[in-house]
Amino acid sequence: MTTRLILFDIDGTLIRTGGAGVRAFARVAERLYGIRDGTRGIRFHGRTDGSIVQEFLQAHGLPDSDAERRHFLDAYVFLLDDELHRQPGELCPGIAGLMGTLPEISQPPVLGLLTGNIRLGAGLKLAAHGLAASFVLGAFGDDHLDRNALARIALERGSRHLGRPLSGEEVVVVGDTRADVECARAIGARCLAVATGGETLQELLEHSPAEAAESLEGWGWDRLMNAGRPAPRAVDWEDLYQARDTRWDHGEAAPALQDFLSAWPGEWPRQGTVVVPGCGRGHDARAWALAGFDVLGLDLAPTAVAEARSMTTGAPAHLRFLQGDFLKDPPVAPVDWLFEHTLFCAISPEHRDAYVRSAAGWVRPGGHLLAVHYLQPADAGGPPYGVTVDEVLRRFGADFELVRHGSSRSFASRAGRERLFLWRRRIS
Ligand SMILES: [Mg+2]
Question: pTM to 2 decimals?
């Protein structure tokens, strides 16, 4: 089930205010009740503002009522605002990158807040970091004293927003404390616990979150939406080759590559080194070798490599095939060209960052990546997994400069679904 709602905790997950809230609480205790150090000994992490006030009032023998807590929190909001102006704190690692890329994803999840902060306090903290407009709904400390109840309220509001009942499986809760892990569990959601706030990774893991990470540094939305899900069943390419179930193999080089090589663009020398990852039985690699290039074909499946070698009798000597894992193995040597045909679409989205890293590692600065991608807007759980032009441009654009892209000739069964992308590896 696709993740439709992601609920973020605030303190220690999105931002670190450096104790602005704790200082504001202490100032209220002193201002309203003349109690210095009134919050000493009170635990703040992962709790609702109301429950913190309740503990303070009870610890000092003060009358505890809804009205009294409201009175406290009204004063708190003003002092919090003051504290945040003096010292706004910082975004947690990875948050800026994550928020910046939300508009680029094709089916963005709804972003909500699940926080013990009262609504006004949450708004002030987020506004101090330009995040106030990023969240369309939330459950807050003034909705309930109990965080698990807040999770149920957030789920209800998410359902109302989407116009249908959401199940917990469609929800990811991101938080930095055991309280976040527990409230996610209370609604059957997956919790991604991040050690950027109250607790260490080790402490968080003791509470069995669906997934845990040191921080969100380097995380993209695909990975976040799939947090805590088992990796999709890996395709056993070797089994498929042994069973000769290789429907993708048309017995010849990709038509787009045949055209590219026969109308070789004059601006580059018609020589150099080429790697073809996911080369299968080697049709594309042989086409490059016959055109005069020094070629290495790589494939995960030993049977594919063996068949590629046996089909290569009579082909030029400067063609080799190796069994290897393009996502994991380091490059043998930087190459002038990397060619791939319908490999990227066979890589599940959570491994695509690794794919782009590998491609950038193989191609020398100024060298070229020539890719024929199979486009499929909807992701049916692959392979082939969903690929869109936008995604290709976004993922490869950082390391490669686009030379051109456009439709290309395909096997009949894929007509109109393939697109050729020519990239130049950026120099730095
Ligand atoms: Mg927190």
Answer: 0.61
